[in-house]
Amino acid sequence: MSSLYQALAFEESKLRKAAQAVIAEIADIAWPERLPSLMPTLVNMLSNEASMVVHSSLSCLVLVAENFGAEDVERVASQLFPPLLSLFANEQVEIVVRKQALSVFTTCLVALASAGGEKMKGLMQAFQPVLDEWVGRAVAAMQHTAHEGGRSLRGIQIEAVKMLSSLASPFSKYFLEKSDAIMQAMWSLLSNASAEYERMHVRRSTEDEPVSDEEDEAGEDISLNTLLSEFSSLVMQMAEKTRLKKKVKIMMPSLAKLLLVFAQYAVSEMSLWEDDPAEFAAMEEEESFRSNARNVAVDILVLLQETVGGTIVMESVLAAAEERLATAEKCKAEGDPYWWKMREAVMYCIGSLSAELMDVAQNGAEKKKKKGGADRPATSFWPFHPLTYLTHIVMPYLSNEGTNPVLQHRSLWSMHMFSFVLDKPTAEHVFTAAVSCLNQNYHLSLRMNACKAVQGTMKHLDGQQITSSFAYLFGYLAMLCGEAGSDLMHICIDCIEMAIKKDEGRAASQHVQPISSMMVLLIQKQAADPVIPASCIACLKALAEQPSCREGVYAHALPAAAEALARYTSLDSTVLEKVTMLVEGIVHSDDGALPVQVWSAVFPSLITVLLSVDDDAVIQQGTATLKAFVRYGHTQLEQEMDGVGTPLTSLLSVLSRILSPTLSDSAELEAGGLLHLLIRYCGEALSPVMPDIVKAALSRIATSSHIVLNTDLITLLCRLTLLHPSAMMTLLSSTPSPAPDSHEEVATVFFVRRVLSSYADIHSRFGTKVVASALCLLLRDYANELSTVAVKGKQVSADNAGELRTRSTAKDRKVEYEVIPATAKVLELLAMTYKEEVERREKKDGDDEWDTDEGEDVDSDEEEGEEEGVGKKSPFAPASDFFGLLEELKYAEDGDIDIEDDDVKDDPINDVNVEADIVQTVKKYAAEHGDALASSQASLTSAAVNTIQQILEVQ
């Protein structure tokens, strides 16, 4: 160890630092038992005449003390604290040494706080005289100006604030006793710092004028920003304790005034406005610039609102803002060239606090002042009315005529920050001003905020105003995209997309080619950043959804989609999902035939993606896109096309992969819906491969635990049973059961059992009709086959049912069910469905308008199948949306769901009268299998028996 101690005095700083780190590591393991010489050696070095040795010893002590516990501090206090205090109190000692001495003591205080409880109280009593001396010295240092005698005391002041922060929360009682002196020192420190900031940074007229130091002799940050950050930590520690929080509230009005001083632009920041507009714009946008004084000041106000709460913080800010605005107007009248910085700082603070201001204004404005609380500052700004503030303080600077460009920049930004509260007249005025400020002759940062203001105001406007400004808006935004970073580029594209939707194709139809070309170019250039291509594709989709723009999109946007799909291996899965959504939006036709370029440009690439990619979201959305091709191009599925081949062949190859067990359930959610469409439109053409489809569906049902996927596929098999009953029953009876470790010999048994067990999981109106109709067919025509299939019936008593059950016996108790023939279970399910159908019909007959669960009056029309049991769907909604996604479905009072979707609303299944079908089926079964019906009643619920009797009595 002696060589390590000697290394602390080396000339080479890297060697000294290495020795300090090694000593600290060894001390953490061996001190004090095996390293008793550590503290005496380091303490002796503190009296060395060479400041470098003292500095090195203190640096080592800081590292060692970081691993101290309370007992370690108690052990070394008598030998360590006196020389530390002597160094700190000696104004002739180097500033950096005094700062380090205070840092060692602060680290020891933190260790003392770890004792907790009575132990900490005892230690506090023992060390109070020493602590009084340290706090007195620290408070005195905080009250000095930062620069005395040509030396900067800022480093010591920052460390003093750190020490007080370590006291505030764990030693709050002691802190409260000293709070008057501490608060006075805090106020003095911040007042001096704000005056220094305004003098040296805000009002510095030339680059030659001196500025405050940013680093001390040891290279540590002692800037005003660091001081503010440490001050913020101290205030937050105080706000955690109720009695100290009151002190913070008392200080708030004065504190807000000083923080508004720090919120002004520094000269160094404003020099970028003229010299490097792009750098200034980056400074405004990037998080890395949040550490400048103005942002630290705003962050302190936000933290104060979060910790102090109530209205006092925001009231203080508004009072300070009102006073600051009055001062700015006075300075302007007197010819002060810096008046605009005061006004800009006010707008910046209030805009940055927009969310907090609105929350307090809405929730706390009516709360009366509590007795004994902090005095509220007088201000006409409270209660806060955002539109009044925007109209009188912000809007006068939106105009370019005679307006300071920085104030115009901040005014546009303020409108963006408060866009969520704008009314239509204000939004119209702001929108017009913001669009004009997008002109490339304006400063880049001003144009950026104009873009944000446009984005915020557009949602309040009607389409006509967007239409009249569309050409200018798109042109300016396109130019801005070429200069902006990715974050702003995303906002520009979002504005274009919003404008297209608002315009509804009136003006956008004249700009399809330039919009498409721009988006294609951005997709090509920004492929590495998934956000931009995804935004471009969403914009193209909005364009494609406008009928007047569709032909232009076919010509110009389809190549972009095809290119993105062709490069899917290098694109993010989010982009691929957006691409498939774009294609789904483009693929639209009313006559069952799509333009050839739609097929040739996109379909081959989409097939390639679905045969190659493994991303669940992409496969699911891509399958939904194939549904759109089938839906709108079903007359062309069997035609030979150049570059495409026969679409049906490609579709079947995709289905073969999607239904394979190698993919996850979530990737296959659209498979059932795609198969429904193919069977509906290409049933005959599918006949040769139908056995393979059935076997694949059965295998997925056997291996999948996903309710939505299973009910989709069961509904599909029931539909095939309705269409080809004989062929289906023959196929099932000759196919082995797909269930693993099953005693079922053939797939018929598996199919029947799964249909019956899954019936309760089918919640769509369409699915219920399909499966109920299939059950009717099976009971009518295949009752003998059904009677041989044993299924689970009602729950019956288990062994030892009469015994008193404990937790352990209840856990081991086996639940048993009655075994009944499938015919009995079918009868029970049909009885339940019949009852629901009757109730549904009677309700509709008796009330044309009924209330949903949300209390909304909704027209009901049985022929159209419209009912507010489900939310409005896009015409391109995925199949899973209407085949059982329960979390997305809203139920009508009777529990049924009518699906309004292109895939099912015109399906022939909707013409089936389930109620009449059940009546016919049960009567036929009773006539032909009366004995079986009578014997099965013992296995049915009493409600089912009564319903069957009602069915038999229907005339």
From TrEMBL:
Organism: Palpitomonas bilix
Lineage: Eukaryota, Eukaryota incertae sedis
Acidic residues biased stretches: 847-868
Entries under Gene3D superfamilies matching the protein: Leucine-rich Repeat Variant
Superkingdom as given in the UniProt entry: Eukaryota
GO cellular component, one term: cytosol
Matching SUPFAM superfamilies: ARM repeat (SSF48371)
Record-level GO BP terms: protein import into nucleus
Protein name: Importin-9
Region (Disordered): 838-876
First and last residues of every HEAT repeat: 38-75
